[in-house]
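This part of the workshop introduces the protein records we will be handling. The question running through the whole workshop is how a given chain folds. To make this concrete, we reproduce a full record directly below:
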Amino acid sequence: MLKEFNLVVSTYRGRENDCISELWYFLRDLGDRRFEASPTGLPGLIVARTSLNPLDVVEKLREEVLKSPWYFRFILKVVPIAKVVPADLETISSEASKMALEAISPEETYKVIVRKRLSELGTREVIEAVASRIDRKVSLEKPDKVVVVEIIGDVAGIAVLKPDQIVSVQKLKREARRAGWE
């Protein structure tokens, strides 16, 4: 598995290679000539490294899905990652809280989302360790920012994002359908 990644991508079980190909074509169209991706060994999950800004990638993905929803068949969800660290509680909580305090202003709210795979760490213990270091107001319903911790085995990808920077292709396709674009 690729250890230095900046995108976590979900797909259908057994369609990981198709997803990598679809992502490769999309990123190539955006001008990325140094794209790398690999299956994680977990069904339906790949990690990728783009030479482009991952936040720009998800914004372009959002635009393309709304414009041409039929273009994407295998990419289901894309989460941009700012930093990859060892998956131990101290490192995760230290890095995530540092990033959060830089990205979340005192008047903004946040929530912590942890997705863990192949790890003994408890979701609740990670959330508590991260949140206890962030002196900002929590909003579980409508946060201004989301502290994302994606644990995959011995590494953890961390990012502080606006909720719409986590792109669910399926949700966007439903929006496109409702708007009558499909």
User: Anything to note?
Assistant: The beta strands are 7-10, 36-39, 45-49, 77-80, 83-86, 109-117, 137-138, 145-152, 155-161, 167-168. The chain has five helices and ten strands.
